[in-house]
Design a protein that fits this description.
mainly alpha, DNAb Helicase, Chain A, Rossmann fold
Amino acid sequence: MESEELTPYGKIAPHDLAAERSVLGALLINPLHLPDVVELLKADDFYDRRHRLIYEQMVDLAERNQPVDAITVGTALKAKDALAASGGDGYMVELISVVPNAAHLMHHARLVNHTSLLRTLIDSCTDIISRSYGTHPDEESVTQLLDEAENGIFKINSSKDTGGAVEVGDVLADAFKRIEAQRNRGDLTGLPSGFMDLDDLLGGFNPGELTVIAARPAMGKTAFALNLMEHAATHRPAHFDHGPAILFFSLEMGRLSIVQRMLSSRARVDTHKMRTGKIDPAAFADLTHAAGDLQKTRL
């Protein structure tokens, strides 16, 4: 096995050799699971070079519709003069012996994936730190570094998304869970809007759905959206384990204007009075109470 890699901070890079061996051993026992693992792992995700070579050869054989087992993988590696570098025939047998079956294959594959993500994150952050020391402190240089750093972190996060085509059978179970939940509850499956007619039409705001609010300018789209947000954030459905988290983007209004409009709506205080400061004690008390309610939400 290659020596353990140290980060620039003198610490050993995150890895899980036992999980890597379990993944390879399970695939040698039951290669039918290889397509599932390929959706999650690349050869570079393996910390041990021997494991990278073996996994890479497994994928190569599978792509050429060749059988994948200890013999075929070993023969292919030998043809490339890579058998010794991958640990030899004996190591292939050792991998098979470490796992009795492939029952926990995907769990171990996720462990390998997560440790790989951590190593990638460490490399990216180390590069950001190094470049920060050498960046000239002018607005253009600092802004460029921030943009590149943000883009680098975003790429790492987006690499977790391995979504692709799925079989209908994989989705049917989730579909029936939603149908059964609706049948047992007898109410909305998603977040309520606070408008009964709208909830009857949509069944609430459900995961995986996009709802577009369209109207001519100055017809109250923003006010309507803020009302939906406020109601959803302050009225947690019984079938939710926790309060919903809601994110609002605006290219027109600043954050203070948005919050003031929400306070005005919830407290039933005229926005003109808030702008002019003509707020009587009762209205101020209502605003204070509304602020307390909003403070408890995840808006």
